[in-house]
Specification:
Radius of gyration of chain A: 19 Å
Oligomer: homodimer
Shape of chain A: globular
Largest sheet of chain A: 4 strands, antiparallel
Order of helices and strands of chain A: HHEEEEEEHEEHHHHHEEH
Structural class of chain A: alpha+beta
Number of helices of chain A: 9
Largest interface: A-B, 40 and 40 residues
Chain lengths: 238, 238
DNA sequence: CGTCAGCTTGATTACTTTCAATTGTTGTGG
DNA sequence: CCACAACAATTGAAAGTAATCAAGCTGACG
């Protein structure tokens, strides 16, 4: 039972070994303060951590696991906005702008997520410039990514977008130890929801990329055989 | 000569009548501080205020005029990211993340833009929580818009996107006094760069919308005849 | 008055989606 | 452990949508 294993050993925030991108510049005391009313929750694959449109009452910090953030279009179609993994925070945007959550967060695998109280977080934010600064850095990063993603979707062909999605998955989740197998196993329909296309087109395109020896399949997982060619095909020429 | 008229009367920041979305919570003294080394510049239609990729050495604050922010895709095609008008700031994202400008800013008409020194801004930011807070609010707003725009481009048809673009233009620039004529005159190719399509398709679609009595043309400008139907066609059902 | 940029229209082509049908996989309860 | 249900992947054919290419038009401006 993987869930049992996860239950062990969730340290208090001040001893958390995750290098959180939001709390990295806090002192031990500050971390302890923010974690005062920490609640750790477990989610199985597919379970929802929060729903788009619902009231935001806390900050989620991923202790273990991968999470996908998605948003519904007017027509009911899902669009995956971004991913988050160990050490990353969720829902900070909603807290900062005092809006409802703008996206739905779903566990992609067994997850352990800590919920930090809105009050403690906001309190510390007011007093601590470096926390506000880190929040700004996070926002600028997300904004940059969102704008880049926008241009990609608007201008690239489906094939390019799918190649780029594979690169994104590799960068976000890394390879399985010692291989070039992307460590996250997504469904074709999830890949479609990132690239902004349909399941069928993803299947056909992946089959072509496979025939072209750019990728290979290992069960549900995807092995990258030729990363540089994939980058080229994705229209990424840096 | 409109440019001559604009030259008159640019007040120091502490007496600026624009309700800036970034400086609204500053005191007079703080505004004076930030405006210490203010330089006001004039741009004619089509002139570039800053280029994507160039080093960011100051904060631009629009005193008069409208500006478009665009970004190049890998294939060289332009994508208009957003617009800005009187009172809005440009380039704050680059300053905050210490990156180069991520977009190119072009004057859409006669503009007067004040350049505030990076040092004074950053200095005040460090000392003044309410300024940092306003920056956070601005970032969350832009992020929300970017994500919404992403979903629109990814999921809507060209027709929906063009309808939505017209609504966006109306919301951003308002009508000409006492009419339903969108006050900004964009080229078809600019509209295409917002909606993520081609000039020809914009022309064809606008012609159809015209035939359907949703819009009308007044020279280069577009008159909205039926806003609620346009909203519906844009897939905006709030 | 010529030129240049923007606008318009038509015809063709390419790409993607949609629909439909089939097979494969996984997890659950009897 | 098997049967079954639910979900995921696959394949093919048909339909639609928008991009591309090519050509002519219009209006502003030096």
């Amino acid at each position: 039972m993987q869930i049992k294993r996860l239950c062990y050993d969730i340290p208090p925030c001040e001893h958390c070994t995750n290098t959180s991108n939001l709390f990295c510049s806090l002192t031990k005391n500050e971390k302890a303060y923010i974690g005062k009313s920490k609640k750790s929750n477990f989610y199985k694959k597919g379970q929802v951590i929060f729903y788009e449109g619902n009231h935001a009452n806390g900050l989620f910090c991923i202790y273990r696991g991968k999470v996908k953030l998605s948003k519904l279009g007017e027509n009911g179609k899902n669009q995956i906005i971004r991913f988050a993994k160990e050490g990353e925070v969720l829902g900070y945007r909603a807290l900062l702008s005092n809006d409802p959550y703008h996206a739905t967060a779903v566990a992609m695998e067994e997850c352990c997520v800590c919920l930090l109280s809105k009050e403690h977080f906001m309190e510390l934010l007011r007093k601590n410039f470096s926390l506000a600064w880190d929040a700004i850095q996070l926002l600028t990063r997300d904004l940059k990514n969102a704008e880049q993603h926008l241009i990609d979707v608007a201008q690239k062909t489906v094939r390019e977008r799918i190649c780029e999605t594979l690169v994104l998955l590799k960068n976000t989740f890394d390879y399985d130890e010692g291989t070039t197998t992307i460590s996250a196993a997504l469904t074709r329909s999830e890949i479609a929801d990132i690239a902004g296309t349909t399941t069928e087109t993803v299947i056909r395109t992946l089959a072509i990329l496979n025939r072209e020896k750019l990728i290979e399949f290992d069960g549900k997982k995807i092995i990258i055989l030729n990363l540089s060619k994939l980058l080229f095909e994705a229209g990424i020429h840096d």
